[in-house]
Design a protein that fits this description.
This protein is an alpha/beta fold. It has a domain of about 180 residues: FAD/NAD(P)-binding domain (3-Layer(bba) Sandwich), CATH 3.50.50. It contains nine helices and 16 strands. The strands form three sheets. An eight-stranded mixed beta sheet has the order 3-5-4-12-13-14-11-15. A five-stranded parallel beta sheet has the order 6-2-1-10-16. The protein has a three-stranded antiparallel beta sheet with strand order 7-8-9. The N and C termini lie far apart (about 50 Å). The site of flavin-adenine dinucleotide has 39 residues, from helix 1, strand 15, helix 6 and helix 7.
Length: about 350
């Protein structure tokens, strides 16, 4: 039986491992952080709760939003009600939930950080600070800065990613999910998860310098929540293809696969990735069970590739237009996309 090592115990790994366990295919998972509060809005889109996480069986607190308050460039605030409201959860709770379910399915999670991966005599060597392990197949479910991706094809370049940073705020001071557009390729956002609130910025990587990123968020907090108390801050990356050609790259080879963020499978405009991580895990499991791991590439392209490609083309166009006619155009197009693509009423 092939020895399979998965790096990462986030959403992508969760469905993959569960499916493989139900076909008696054991795996070994490495994740040094789980369970952890990954920087994230924690929005579970409707397809997440309808296909993968039954919210009625989810034992942790969640918040429920009926729509988004958009603040546009002219400072107008408009509430857009969605036909399909969404839940917001804490990523630490979700991480704990997934870890416990995986353990119930007999998965072993080694709480160590993978520091090196290399190919040796037709096998993979996976090293941590303590030990070196051998695998026939490696699966990168290790997020936007994936070490597995680095080993098989190189990192996601800045052109194809957003940078996200912001602050955790102490109080649950507001029941709005706010998205604000300004003069940069991205958006500011704030939301309450069950235990705290977050305010942050998501912007094309390298479009704004680091100091200005945080000061934009601080101005946003001062304008919207002047009495908010800051509890911490974060910086993270989100894959965000700026050209449909990004998806020509394979996400599986003879003895490796990339899932979720490591594969770059995130909606390129708004940065929604939990659904794609879960779905990629499901499709990867089907490919492994069928004995043809490279069929994963065909499967994800059929399942959701068109949507990612279409939105990457759209992003490419609006980045070009914003370069020529002014950065505020990016926000205008994003607003239009968020209003029309989210099944609004
Ligand atoms: C600020 C922000 C807000 C977001 N908001 C939303 C949202 O509201 N809704 C949504 O759908 N998506 C959102 N996303 C995107 C979403 O978080 C990701 O797309 C999703 O978590 C991807 O799941 P994954 O399993 O591929 O990777 P991850 O969730 O990143 O999990 C990867 C795991 O791999 C582990 N790992 C990494 N490197 C190593 C290593 N070397 N050794 C061992 N383990 C390792 C990590 O500890 C982690 O647990 C947001 C992202 C950001 C940054």
């Amino acid at each position: 039986m092939s020895r399979i090592i998965i790096i990462g115990a986030g959403p992508a790994s969760y469905i993959l491992t569960r499916k493989l366990a139900s076909h008696d295919k054991p795996v070994c998972i490495f994740d040094h952080q789980v369970p952890w509060e990954k920087p994230c809005g924690g929005i579970l889109a409707i397809n997440v709760t309808s296909e993968f996480i039954n919210i009625d069986d989810y034992p942790y607190p969640r918040k429920y939003y009926e729509g988004i308050h958009f603040i546009t460039y002219d400072k107008e605030c408009r509430f857009i009600r969605y036909n399909n409201p969404f839940y917001v959860v804490s990523r630490k709770d979700l991480s704990e939930y997934m870890r416990d379910k995986l353990m119930d399915h007999g998965a072993s999670i080694i709480k160590e950080k993978v520091t090196k991966i290399y190919h040796y005599n037709d096998t993979w060597r996976v090293a941590t600070d303590n030990k070196e392990y051998t695998a026939d197949i490696i699966i990168g479910a290790d997020g936007a800065l994936s070490i597995t991706r680095q080993a098989v094809m190189g990192s996601i370049p800045p052109l194809h990613r957003y940078i996200a940073c912001g602050y955790y705020l102490k109080e649950l001071f507001d029941n709005r999910c706010i998205v604000k557009f300004s003069d940069f390729p991205g958006y500011l956002w704030s939301m309450s998860c069950p235990y705290y609130a977050t305010a942050g910025i998501i912007v094309q990587d390298q479009a704004i310098n680091a100091k200005k990123l945080f000061s934009s968020v601080e101005n946003f907090i001062n304008e919207e929540f002047p009495s908010a108390e800051i509890a911490g801050r974060y910086t993270a990356y989100i894959p965000s293809a700026s050209d449909p050609e990004f998806y020509n790259q394979p996400c599986a080879g003879e003895n490796w696969m990339l899932l979720g963020d490591a594969a770059g499978h995130v909606e390129p405009l708004i940065g929604e990735g939990i659904y794609y991580a879960l779905k990629s895990g499901e499709l990867a499991a089907e490919a492994i069970i069928s004995g043809d791991i490279q069929s994963y590439d065909k499967k994800w392209r059929e399942a959701y590739g068109n949507k990612l490609i279409t939105n990457a083309s759209y992003k490419k166009t609006i980045l070009n237009l914003a370069n020529q006619f002014g950065p505020e155009l990016y926000g205008a197009f994003l607003y239009n996309n968020l209003c029309t693509n989210f099944n609004t009423s």
